[in-house]
UniProtKB/TrEMBL annotation:
Pfam families (alphabetical): adh_short
Membrane-spanning ranges: none
Superkingdom, natural source: Bacteria
InterPro entries given in the database record: 3-OHbutyrate_DH (IPR011294), NAD(P)-bd_dom_sf (IPR036291), Sc_DH/Rdtase_CS (IPR020904), SDR (IPR050259), SDR_fam (IPR002347)
PROSITE patterns with a match to the protein in the record: ADH_SHORT
Name used for this protein in its record: 3-hydroxybutyrate dehydrogenase
Record NCBIfam families: PHB_DH, PRK12429.1, PRK13394.1
Entry similarity comment: Belongs to the short-chain dehydrogenases/reductases (SDR) family.
Classification via Gene3D superfamilies: NAD(P)-binding Rossmann-like Domain
Source species: Alsobacter ponti
Length: 259
Protein backbone atom coordinates (compact mmCIF):
# COMPACT_ATOMS: atom_id res chain seq x y z
CA UNK A 1 0.00 0.00 0.00
CA UNK A 2 2.76 2.38 -1.04
CA UNK A 3 2.07 6.00 -1.96
CA UNK A 4 5.72 7.07 -2.18
CA UNK A 5 6.33 9.46 -5.09
CA UNK A 6 2.77 9.08 -6.29
CA UNK A 7 1.65 12.36 -7.87
CA UNK A 8 -1.91 13.25 -6.86
CA UNK A 9 -3.97 16.13 -8.16
CA UNK A 10 -6.39 16.99 -5.35
CA UNK A 11 -9.04 19.55 -6.25
CA UNK A 12 -10.34 21.87 -3.56
CA UNK A 13 -7.25 21.05 -1.49
CA UNK A 14 -6.74 24.57 -0.14
CA UNK A 15 -9.33 23.93 2.60
CA UNK A 16 -11.16 21.33 4.68
CA UNK A 17 -11.20 17.70 3.60
CA UNK A 18 -9.02 18.18 0.51
CA UNK A 19 -6.31 19.89 2.53
CA UNK A 20 -6.14 17.04 5.03
CA UNK A 21 -5.92 14.51 2.17
CA UNK A 22 -2.93 16.49 0.84
CA UNK A 23 -1.27 16.60 4.27
CA UNK A 24 -1.73 12.87 4.87
CA UNK A 25 -0.62 11.92 1.36
CA UNK A 26 2.54 14.01 1.79
CA UNK A 27 3.22 12.32 5.14
CA UNK A 28 3.26 8.98 3.27
CA UNK A 29 5.77 10.25 0.71
CA UNK A 30 3.28 11.20 -2.00
CA UNK A 31 3.33 14.45 -3.97
CA UNK A 32 0.12 16.46 -3.64
CA UNK A 33 -0.80 18.97 -6.32
CA UNK A 34 -3.11 21.47 -4.63
CA UNK A 35 -5.63 22.51 -7.30
CA UNK A 36 -8.03 25.18 -6.11
CA UNK A 37 -10.06 28.17 -7.19
CA UNK A 38 -8.40 30.06 -4.38
CA UNK A 39 -4.76 30.25 -5.57
CA UNK A 40 -3.49 32.21 -2.55
CA UNK A 41 -4.83 29.57 -0.15
CA UNK A 42 -3.55 26.76 -2.40
CA UNK A 43 -0.08 28.32 -2.42
CA UNK A 44 -0.16 28.70 1.36
CA UNK A 45 -1.05 25.00 1.73
CA UNK A 46 1.71 23.93 -0.67
CA UNK A 47 4.22 26.16 1.15
CA UNK A 48 3.18 24.66 4.51
CA UNK A 49 3.76 21.16 3.13
CA UNK A 50 7.15 22.05 1.66
CA UNK A 51 8.22 23.41 5.07
CA UNK A 52 7.60 19.96 6.51
CA UNK A 53 9.89 18.45 3.87
CA UNK A 54 7.31 17.30 1.33
CA UNK A 55 7.18 18.08 -2.36
CA UNK A 56 3.96 19.96 -3.17
CA UNK A 57 2.74 22.23 -5.93
CA UNK A 58 -0.17 24.70 -6.13
CA UNK A 59 -2.22 25.35 -9.25
CA UNK A 60 -5.09 27.73 -9.93
CA UNK A 61 -8.03 25.77 -11.21
CA UNK A 62 -11.75 26.30 -11.53
CA UNK A 63 -12.81 22.69 -12.01
CA UNK A 64 -15.81 23.79 -14.07
CA UNK A 65 -13.56 25.57 -16.61
CA UNK A 66 -12.22 23.16 -19.24
CA UNK A 67 -9.26 25.34 -20.24
CA UNK A 68 -8.08 25.79 -16.65
CA UNK A 69 -8.47 22.07 -15.95
CA UNK A 70 -6.50 21.08 -19.07
CA UNK A 71 -3.78 23.62 -18.22
CA UNK A 72 -3.51 22.50 -14.58
CA UNK A 73 -3.15 18.85 -15.57
CA UNK A 74 -0.65 19.71 -18.35
CA UNK A 75 1.42 21.81 -15.91
CA UNK A 76 1.44 18.91 -13.43
CA UNK A 77 2.61 16.44 -16.07
CA UNK A 78 5.22 18.94 -17.33
CA UNK A 79 6.61 19.22 -13.80
CA UNK A 80 6.43 15.61 -12.60
CA UNK A 81 6.10 13.59 -15.82
CA UNK A 82 2.91 11.86 -14.68
CA UNK A 83 -0.31 11.98 -12.71
CA UNK A 84 -0.99 8.82 -10.72
CA UNK A 85 -3.97 9.85 -8.61
CA UNK A 86 -6.89 12.24 -9.02
CA UNK A 87 -8.97 13.17 -6.00
CA UNK A 88 -11.97 15.06 -7.37
CA UNK A 89 -12.95 16.81 -4.17
CA UNK A 90 -13.80 20.47 -4.89
CA UNK A 91 -17.37 21.24 -3.96
CA UNK A 92 -19.84 23.74 -2.65
CA UNK A 93 -23.21 23.62 -0.95
CA UNK A 94 -26.27 25.74 -1.74
CA UNK A 95 -29.49 25.08 0.16
CA UNK A 96 -33.00 26.21 -0.80
CA UNK A 97 -36.43 24.61 -0.70
CA UNK A 98 -37.01 22.84 -4.04
CA UNK A 99 -39.91 25.13 -4.97
CA UNK A 100 -37.71 28.24 -4.65
CA UNK A 101 -34.38 26.75 -5.86
CA UNK A 102 -32.92 29.34 -8.27
CA UNK A 103 -31.97 27.75 -11.60
CA UNK A 104 -28.68 29.70 -11.57
CA UNK A 105 -27.74 28.11 -8.21
CA UNK A 106 -28.70 24.67 -9.52
CA UNK A 107 -26.45 25.13 -12.56
CA UNK A 108 -23.56 26.49 -10.48
CA UNK A 109 -23.59 23.58 -8.06
CA UNK A 110 -24.02 20.91 -10.74
CA UNK A 111 -21.18 22.47 -12.77
CA UNK A 112 -18.69 22.37 -9.89
CA UNK A 113 -19.55 18.86 -8.73
CA UNK A 114 -20.37 17.03 -11.97
CA UNK A 115 -18.74 19.02 -14.79
CA UNK A 116 -15.72 19.35 -12.49
CA UNK A 117 -15.51 15.60 -11.88
CA UNK A 118 -15.93 14.88 -15.60
CA UNK A 119 -13.43 17.48 -16.83
CA UNK A 120 -10.68 16.67 -14.33
CA UNK A 121 -11.06 12.94 -14.94
CA UNK A 122 -11.00 13.35 -18.72
CA UNK A 123 -7.88 15.53 -18.58
CA UNK A 124 -6.02 13.05 -16.32
CA UNK A 125 -7.14 9.92 -18.14
CA UNK A 126 -5.03 10.34 -21.26
CA UNK A 127 -1.90 10.40 -19.09
CA UNK A 128 -3.14 7.54 -16.88
CA UNK A 129 -4.02 5.39 -19.89
CA UNK A 130 -0.59 6.03 -21.45
CA UNK A 131 1.08 5.04 -18.16
CA UNK A 132 -1.33 2.14 -17.63
CA UNK A 133 -1.88 3.28 -14.05
CA UNK A 134 -4.38 5.53 -12.34
CA UNK A 135 -6.44 5.88 -9.18
CA UNK A 136 -9.46 8.19 -9.35
CA UNK A 137 -11.39 8.98 -6.19
CA UNK A 138 -14.50 11.14 -6.18
CA UNK A 139 -15.68 12.94 -3.05
CA UNK A 140 -19.26 11.83 -2.70
CA UNK A 141 -21.33 12.16 0.44
CA UNK A 142 -23.90 10.28 2.46
CA UNK A 143 -26.01 12.32 0.06
CA UNK A 144 -24.76 10.01 -2.73
CA UNK A 145 -27.11 7.44 -1.13
CA UNK A 146 -29.61 9.41 0.93
CA UNK A 147 -31.70 12.57 0.44
CA UNK A 148 -32.24 15.56 2.70
CA UNK A 149 -34.57 18.50 2.47
CA UNK A 150 -33.25 21.72 0.85
CA UNK A 151 -30.46 19.93 -1.07
CA UNK A 152 -31.97 19.15 -4.49
CA UNK A 153 -28.85 20.05 -6.48
CA UNK A 154 -26.32 18.58 -4.02
CA UNK A 155 -28.12 15.26 -3.62
CA UNK A 156 -28.52 14.98 -7.40
CA UNK A 157 -24.85 15.77 -8.03
CA UNK A 158 -23.57 13.40 -5.34
CA UNK A 159 -25.76 10.54 -6.64
CA UNK A 160 -24.43 11.30 -10.14
CA UNK A 161 -20.84 10.66 -9.05
CA UNK A 162 -21.71 7.01 -8.36
CA UNK A 163 -22.70 6.57 -12.00
CA UNK A 164 -19.64 8.38 -13.28
CA UNK A 165 -17.28 6.24 -11.19
CA UNK A 166 -18.95 3.00 -12.33
CA UNK A 167 -18.49 3.90 -16.00
CA UNK A 168 -14.85 4.76 -15.36
CA UNK A 169 -14.37 1.48 -13.46
CA UNK A 170 -15.48 -0.38 -16.59
CA UNK A 171 -13.64 1.71 -19.18
CA UNK A 172 -10.48 2.16 -17.13
CA UNK A 173 -9.96 -1.48 -16.12
CA UNK A 174 -7.85 -2.48 -19.13
CA UNK A 175 -5.52 0.45 -18.36
CA UNK A 176 -5.22 -0.37 -14.64
CA UNK A 177 -7.24 2.76 -13.79
CA UNK A 178 -9.65 2.33 -10.88
CA UNK A 179 -12.53 4.54 -9.72
CA UNK A 180 -14.10 4.92 -6.29
CA UNK A 181 -16.37 7.25 -4.36
CA UNK A 182 -15.82 8.16 -0.69
CA UNK A 183 -19.03 9.27 0.98
CA UNK A 184 -18.59 11.26 4.20
CA UNK A 185 -21.18 12.21 6.78
CA UNK A 186 -21.04 15.76 8.15
CA UNK A 187 -17.48 17.02 8.61
CA UNK A 188 -16.88 20.30 10.45
CA UNK A 189 -15.33 22.33 7.60
CA UNK A 190 -16.13 25.85 6.29
CA UNK A 191 -18.67 24.21 3.95
CA UNK A 192 -20.66 22.85 6.90
CA UNK A 193 -20.12 25.86 9.18
CA UNK A 194 -21.86 27.95 6.52
CA UNK A 195 -24.86 25.60 6.39
CA UNK A 196 -25.65 25.59 10.10
CA UNK A 197 -27.09 29.14 10.35
CA UNK A 198 -28.68 28.82 6.88
CA UNK A 199 -30.50 25.62 7.80
CA UNK A 200 -31.50 27.02 11.20
CA UNK A 201 -33.17 29.93 9.41
CA UNK A 202 -34.83 27.83 6.75
CA UNK A 203 -36.04 25.08 9.12
CA UNK A 204 -37.00 27.57 11.88
CA UNK A 205 -34.89 25.87 14.58
CA UNK A 206 -31.80 26.81 16.60
CA UNK A 207 -28.26 26.23 15.29
CA UNK A 208 -27.69 23.75 18.13
CA UNK A 209 -30.74 21.81 16.99
CA UNK A 210 -29.51 21.78 13.39
CA UNK A 211 -26.37 20.00 14.61
CA UNK A 212 -28.16 17.67 17.03
CA UNK A 213 -31.45 16.89 15.34
CA UNK A 214 -30.53 17.24 11.66
CA UNK A 215 -26.82 16.69 11.07
CA UNK A 216 -25.83 14.11 13.70
CA UNK A 217 -29.23 12.64 14.58
CA UNK A 218 -28.63 9.25 12.92
CA UNK A 219 -24.96 8.72 13.80
CA UNK A 220 -24.15 5.97 16.31
CA UNK A 221 -22.17 8.30 18.57
CA UNK A 222 -23.40 11.87 17.97
CA UNK A 223 -19.99 12.69 16.50
CA UNK A 224 -18.99 14.63 13.40
CA UNK A 225 -16.98 12.66 10.85
CA UNK A 226 -13.41 14.05 10.83
CA UNK A 227 -11.22 15.08 7.93
CA UNK A 228 -8.84 12.31 9.06
CA UNK A 229 -11.63 9.70 8.83
CA UNK A 230 -12.25 10.77 5.24
CA UNK A 231 -8.61 11.18 4.18
CA UNK A 232 -7.75 7.68 5.44
CA UNK A 233 -10.52 6.19 3.28
CA UNK A 234 -9.39 8.17 0.24
CA UNK A 235 -5.77 7.07 0.68
CA UNK A 236 -6.88 3.46 1.13
CA UNK A 237 -8.41 3.55 -2.36
CA UNK A 238 -5.48 5.59 -3.71
CA UNK A 239 -3.05 2.88 -2.59
CA UNK A 240 -5.21 -0.02 -3.72
CA UNK A 241 -3.00 -2.46 -5.65
CA UNK A 242 -5.62 -4.00 -7.95
CA UNK A 243 -9.06 -3.70 -9.53
CA UNK A 244 -10.63 -5.59 -6.60
CA UNK A 245 -12.45 -2.56 -5.17
CA UNK A 246 -13.04 -0.57 -8.34
CA UNK A 247 -16.50 0.91 -8.83
CA UNK A 248 -17.29 0.79 -5.10
CA UNK A 249 -18.34 3.61 -2.85
CA UNK A 250 -17.47 3.70 0.84
CA UNK A 251 -19.58 5.57 3.38
CA UNK A 252 -17.60 7.18 6.22
CA UNK A 253 -20.27 8.59 8.49
CA UNK A 254 -20.14 7.27 12.07
CA UNK A 255 -23.03 4.97 11.23
CA UNK A 256 -25.39 7.65 9.87
CA UNK A 257 -25.86 5.63 6.70
CA UNK A 258 -25.09 1.91 6.59
CA UNK A 259 -24.79 0.34 3.12
P1 LIG B 1 -14.45 23.46 2.00
O1 LIG B 1 -15.38 24.56 1.71
O2 LIG B 1 -13.70 23.44 3.28
O3 LIG B 1 -13.39 23.31 0.82
C1 LIG B 1 -13.77 23.31 -0.53
C2 LIG B 1 -12.61 23.79 -1.37
O4 LIG B 1 -13.04 23.71 -2.74
C3 LIG B 1 -12.22 25.26 -1.11
O5 LIG B 1 -10.81 25.36 -0.97
C4 LIG B 1 -12.70 26.00 -2.35
O6 LIG B 1 -11.89 27.11 -2.70
C5 LIG B 1 -12.61 24.89 -3.39
N1 LIG B 1 -13.48 25.14 -4.55
C6 LIG B 1 -14.76 25.56 -4.56
N2 LIG B 1 -15.19 25.71 -5.82
C7 LIG B 1 -14.16 25.33 -6.63
C8 LIG B 1 -14.00 25.27 -8.02
N3 LIG B 1 -14.98 25.62 -8.87
N4 LIG B 1 -12.80 24.85 -8.52
C9 LIG B 1 -11.79 24.50 -7.67
N5 LIG B 1 -11.90 24.57 -6.34
C10 LIG B 1 -13.07 24.98 -5.82
O7 LIG B 1 -15.33 22.13 1.82
P2 LIG B 1 -15.16 20.63 2.35
O8 LIG B 1 -16.17 20.42 3.42
O9 LIG B 1 -13.75 20.29 2.60
O10 LIG B 1 -15.72 19.84 1.07
C11 LIG B 1 -14.89 19.14 0.18
C12 LIG B 1 -15.73 18.08 -0.53
O11 LIG B 1 -16.27 17.18 0.43
C13 LIG B 1 -16.92 18.65 -1.31
O12 LIG B 1 -17.07 17.93 -2.52
C14 LIG B 1 -18.10 18.36 -0.40
O13 LIG B 1 -19.31 18.24 -1.10
C15 LIG B 1 -17.66 17.04 0.19
N6 LIG B 1 -18.33 16.68 1.44
C16 LIG B 1 -18.23 17.51 2.53
C17 LIG B 1 -18.88 17.14 3.69
C18 LIG B 1 -18.80 17.99 4.91
O14 LIG B 1 -19.59 17.71 5.83
N7 LIG B 1 -17.93 18.96 5.00
C19 LIG B 1 -19.63 15.96 3.74
C20 LIG B 1 -19.71 15.16 2.61
C21 LIG B 1 -19.05 15.53 1.47
Amino acid sequence: MDLKNRVAIITGAASGIGKDIAVRLAARGGIPVIADLNLAAAEATAAELRTSGADAFAIAMDVANEEQVEKGVADTVARYGKVDILVSNAGIQIVHPFVDYPYADWKKLIAIHLDGAFLTTKACLKHMYAAKYGRVIYMGSVHSHEASKLKAAYVTAKHGLLGLSRVLAKEGAEYNVTANVVCPGFVRTPLVDKQIPEQAKQLGISEQDVVKTVMLKDTVDGEFTTTADVADAVLYFAASPSNALTGQSLVVSHGWYMQ
